[in-house]
Amino acid sequence: MTALPPQPLSPLDGRYRAAVTELGEHLSEAGLNRARVQVEVEWLIFLTDRSMFGSSPLDEAQRDALRSLVRDFGQQEIDELAALEATTRHDVKAVEYLVRSRLSALGLDAIAELTHFACTSEDINNLSYALTVSAAVRGVWLPKYRGVIEKISTRAVEFRDDAMLARTHGQPATPTTMGRELAVTAHRLTRIATQIDGTEYLGKFSGATGTFSAHVVADPAADWPALSKEFVEGLGLTWNPLTTQIESHDWQAELYARVSHANRVLHNLATDVWTYISMGYFRQIPQAGATGSSTMPHKINPIRFENAEANLELSSALLDSLAATLVTSRLQRDLTDSTTQRNIGVALGHSLLALDNLSRGLGEIDLDRAALATDLDGNWEVLGEAIQTVIRAEVVAGRSSISDPYAMLKELTRGKRIGHADLTEFVDRLDIGDEAKSRLLALTPASYVGVASDLVDYLP
């Protein structure tokens, strides 16, 4: 058998690449290396700006030339770094050598030794991950996530007045509206979006064991913690003053736990919409050219929601693992986080793919109001809650002497199907005030929704 040409192993880099390609800009190996170059270049400029060790500030042309290495980072640099790493067997050292080669080309050999000055690899790595993850979450994942919230909210407003039978424990229950149910999900997701948006992206820059030891030996008079803080904050990150060799990854654990939480709420949405489709509450809108089944031509399968469900599970499994493992590092440093963090893009990629499917799926369904009305009309027994509650109020007001209204309605309705005529006859015989009786006689399952429609207004 002839071997296949090289193929992507992950479906995120194959079948689903179009849906997740934006993440690769930040969370690929190339994206990580570009961020490493950025940190190395900015540290060099930072030191020369302060004339450390007799250096002089670079002029604007020199600064721009160095920063262009980040701005124009592309295939040439990717290939060059691969060649360097093949020799160094060390990814960050390869980045250092790349920067040094550019300094030489610019005639800046005099400051070459300030490249990677007093840094451990993890000083570069932790800042690079903070920069890339921040850019990926804020620039790619969150906008897509908010787009799904917006679609849910739009449909919530559209269906705000559409009464439907609730099904607590899968059984007929007090009616609600489809809009209110969707608004609940949008509200939950919005809260999590706020939490994710408020994530602190921490960074350390303090040497081999976080003590600034090499820095102090090189220049005992400098306030290295203050310089470190200024540098880290200048990159748009939050400085972490107390670390070992690594930044402790707590911010990552917090972020991934929140994204995983969002995934699970979205998973709940996917399974609920799937169920509403199977019940006939939602109709699926045929898509031109699409095939539902290879043998049953009538079928339109809810594949958007099924695909989302599966990818949300994969994403949360990876994110949960990242959150659990990254917070532990043996003594002052072990290397387990190095390979683990390379899967951040995969974890967020499965979530992004799910968001893409949910966004499409929500636009490919419509409400079958006739199906909702038929279901409501077949379950008049759900008004038992309303009747026994009104009787209780009438007893307290002195307009009824009925004892144990709940037991009375339980006897009438539990495990039974009763219709409009049955309830009308029952209410007519009740010992309650005329106004209360009129209210109950006018009630239908479709009108027994409280203020469900008004609650949609609490959406932001």
UniProtKB/TrEMBL annotation:
A GO molecular function term, named singly, is: N6-(1,2-dicarboxyethyl)AMP AMP-lyase (fumarate-forming) activity
Specify the enzyme's EC class, one word. lyase
- Which superkingdom does the taxonomy of this entry point to? Bacteria
Indicate the transmembrane segments per the record: none
Q: Could you tell me the Gene Ontology terms of the biological process aspect for this record?
A: IMP biosynthetic process
Q: Which UniProt keywords apply?
A: Lyase, Purine biosynthesis
- In what residue span(s) does the Fumarate lyase N-terminal domain sit? 15-308
Pathway assignment: Purine metabolism; IMP biosynthesis via de novo pathway; 5-amino-1-(5-phospho-D-ribosyl)imidazole-4-carboxamide from 5-amino-1-(5-phospho-D-ribosyl)imidazole-4-carboxylate: step 2/2; Purine metabolism; AMP biosynthesis via de novo pathway; AMP from IMP: step 2/2
Q: Does the keyword Lipoprotein apply?
A: no
**Family matches, as Pfam families:** ASL_C, Lyase_1
EC number(s) per UniProt?
A: 4.3.2.2
Q: What positions does the domain Adenylosuccinate lyase PurB C-terminal occupy?
A: 329-449
InterPro entries attached to this UniProt entry = Fumarase/histidase_N, Fumarate_lyase_CS, Fumarate_lyase_fam, Fumarate_lyase_N, L-Aspartase-like, PurB_bact, PurB_C
Q: Has UniProt tagged this entry with the keyword Protease?
A: no
Q: Which PANTHER family match?
A: ADENYLOSUCCINATE LYASE
Q: Please give the NCBIfam families that the UniProt record associates with this protein.
A: PRK09285.1 (NF006764)
Question: What is the purpose of this protein?
Answer: Catalyzes two reactions in de novo purine nucleotide biosynthesis. Catalyzes the breakdown of 5-aminoimidazole- (N-succinylocarboxamide) ribotide (SAICAR or 2-[5-amino-1-(5-phospho-beta-D-ribosyl)imidazole-4-carboxamido]succinate) to 5-aminoimidazole-4-carboxamide ribotide (AICAR or 5-amino-1-(5-phospho-beta-D-ribosyl)imidazole-4-carboxamide) and fumarate, and of adenylosuccinate (ADS or N(6)-(1,2-dicarboxyethyl)-AMP) to adenosine monophosphate (AMP) and fumarate.
Q: What is this protein called?
A: Adenylosuccinate lyase
